[in-house]
Amino acid sequence: MASYRFSDRHPMNPERLGLTARLIRDLDVLGRTPSRVLAPYVAEDDQLRTVHSAGYVEAVKRASGPDGESSPDLGLGTEDDPIFPELHEASARLFGGSIVAAEAILEDQGVPAVNFGGGMHHAARAKAGGFCIYNDAAGAIARLLDQGAQRVLYLDLDAHHGDGTQAIFWDEPRVMTISLHESGRSLFPGTGFPNETGGAVAPNSAVNVALPAGTRDNGWLRAFHSVVVPVARAFEPDIIVSQHGCDGHERDELTNLRLTVDGQRQNALDVAELARELCEGRWIATGGGGYDIVHTVPRVWTHLVAAAAGRPLALRTPVPAPFREYVKERYGFDAPPTMGDDTELWWRSWEVGYDPGDPVDRAIMATRKEVFPALGLDPWFD
User: Which pTM was predicted?
Assistant: First the structure.
């Protein structure tokens, strides 16, 4: 999966995947509970075409060929998505990983699956964008629908709006997309505002919470529990597919949020609880953005895997010595000593009141006013 490498200087560095796998191994996360590791495969063209146009798939293949044919109008060969020789195969393997996850969920209905190499949420039906070529989460959803799922909830927790996934299912009433992200006024891709609520065939199937730059854990978690939880309960999904980009961390240089590992771990626990409550544990979790590849990404996604396995790691769990030694030798600086950022984690429940002077509360209220009445939810209090 590490062959998904645009260039040595590109922010989407696949070493983050290897470091995450190493930390999972060194903490014996998978040994603490029954689990299976399934190999991803390069998805077939017909699988890719469930969510991408045939012409786009062919353009990606041409970009991967010996002539390296760019198609900037399709997002291929741009600064964000430069072409490289294994572009198609590497992208289709990430996609195949999420198809494997979907097939595992269909086979064993009560066991979550995690593909932290996936989460390529900016890829649209016929265009690459934001470091994303093929939209694996959308592919997993399409597979679930094809096999009989009636309602799939897609939950996007990346700092960036999940625009590609939203667009692919814009007119699909069986899918609800919820994206919690930094406002498009200050961050790529410039979309994801509360009035984006789904197409004519699927009204009220898209929910967007556009949070202000500088939002911290308390604001992010307040928004999650004030919007995501009640909307998810109203939708009553069969299966949850989530995207856990960790680029909202305060150390990440590509966004303006100020989240911590502690808050992002809490989000993983919240989604795990929703999956248990609403769909008997049927949950596929993917990775996504995250560009602080040593301090942040491995810890956040290790917490994600542990949460999915039902054996969460304590925030004060020491980072194992072999991992710290590897980081020191490989990168020349110290890894974090523990699995948390030592944050005092708290958030206000929406029921205790709305502060019109708080920009986070205004963002929450904008979304609630837009979508809650149509879902049978009161826009002020649940």
Answer: 0.97
